[in-house]
Design a protein that fits this description.
The protein has 112 residues and is mainly β. The chain has a single domain, classed as Sandwich (Immunoglobulin-like). Helix content is 0%, strand content 47%. The protein is built from no helices and 8 strands. The protein has a 4-stranded mixed sheet with strand order 4-1-7-8, with no helix packed on it. Strand 5 and strand 6 form a beta hairpin. The protein starts with 20 loop residues before the first strand and ends with a strand.
Length: 112
């Protein structure tokens, strides 16, 4: 017989992958001339969030992310340029903003 649980009395479900995840809401403002694809990096996995239209376009994304792990995000312009933002702690609010600058390498991620 296999019993799963912990001293707090709360049962853990080994098949529930949502445990330990937080929901991140990300607003992306694209000030660059070109459309941009946003890609999350988690371990060796690349997760495409979607594309944001250039020249002032904006879009919201929502995704699950491991609690306590910094958000690791890459911006890929349709013309081939790429920029990986420094890993950013999501924190308790889970609301972040990315501003894709006209000069891609000046793009930033910050709390909303």
């Amino acid at each position: 017989m296999l019993v799963l649980g912990c001293s707090t009395g709360r049962a853990l479900n080994p098949f529930d992958r949502s445990q330990g995840l937080e929901t991140i809401r990300l607003r992306v403002d694209n000030l660059n001339l070109h459309d941009a694809l946003l890609v999350l990096q988690r371990d060796k996995e690349r997760i495409e969030l979607g594309t944001v239209q250039g020249q002032g376009g904006f879009r919201y994304f929502e995704f699950s992310w491991p609690e306590g792990r910094p958000v690791d995000l890459e911006i890929q312009l349709v013309v081939g340029d790429r920029f990986r933002l420094p890993p950013f702690p999501a924190g308790v609010t889970g609301q972040l903003q990315v501003v894709i600058a006209a000069d891609l390498h000046r793009s930033v991620i910050r709390r909303r």
